[in-house]
Amino acid sequence: MSDTSARVADSTGNWVDTLAPQWARPYLRVSRFDRPIGSWLLLMPCWWSAALASAMAHDIRSLPLTIVLFFVGAFVMRGAGCTWNDITDRDLDAKVERTRSRPLPAGQITVKQALVFMIAQALIGLAVLLQFNRFAVATGIASLVIVAIYPFMKRVTWWPQVFLGLAFSWGALMGFAVIFGRIDITALVLYAGSIAWVIGYDTIYAHQDSEDDALIGVKSTARLFGAHTHQALILFYGLAVVLIGVALASGDVRWPAWLGLAAFAVHLASQIRRLRIDDPELCKRLFYSNKHAGALLFAGLLADAVMRAA
């Protein structure tokens, strides 16, 4: 087995490299705790839906605990999902410059060790999920089907980002499942808007690897859209704003939520304006910035929930 202190090429100088015990570093890296952006992006639709559903219920008493549980659940389940992704992609990752230093292709841990770690993370996620009602538990478990098949989609379709959107936007349903014990049209429209957002930001992310992906035959919307990426982002980011706006209107939100949506829209427009698909570092920064875009919308929804419950 190779040196467990060796760093991942596209994530250096983080707390895992400098503070974590050496034995733990490969596990923290395989679950992406060295770069938690994906956990934040998974979390945002969870928080959006929890705030919107609480506002519609005119009751925020359970919202603080729900926010905390969603936070823990998003981080551990994203870790489990990334571990599964790395297990299935270990041979492909070995052929890509940016990913060949990840723990599995680099030989820092074995597939068996990664599987055990994935199960441990999933069990923590299950413990979080069991704090909710039965409908929410069933809804959360149902997402595992999409999580399981997502890593294989880049091999068979030019649209793997759609499947990532289905998985990463599941939280848009969970807030309603937790607060109301059901999923209504407002939740479904919010879910659709979040999927469009994910397709957009993950297309930007995928441009980092488009040359390597072309060489090894991996498909993505980045390769599909190519020079037309800006136009595609206008479509998907625009669709995200419109659909989320329809969900907010359906939820009869007040001005703070609309202000949050406006800030979200301005942020997405700024990403499109700044994007250069031949600049991998810029693509990475713009992808990361979606954490702030999602937080702006959440801030508006949270303020609306507090206002309506007063």
Keywords:
310 residues, mainly alpha, 72% helix
Your description of this structure?
- There is one protein chain.
- The protein has 16 helices and no strands.
- It has helices at 15-18, 25-30, 37-57, 63-88, 90-93, 111-129, 134-153, 160-168, 171-180, 185-206, 210-216, 221-225, 229-250, 255-274, 280-288, 290-309.
- The chain is globular and about 55 Å long.
- It starts with 14 loop residues before the first helix and ends with a helix.
Write a brief caption for the model.
This protein has 310 residues and is mainly α.
Give Rg in angstroms: 19 Å
Structural class: mainly alpha
Strand count: 0
Number of helices: 16
The secondary-structure element order is HHHHHHHHHHHHHHHH
Largest sheet: none
Helix percentage range: over 70%
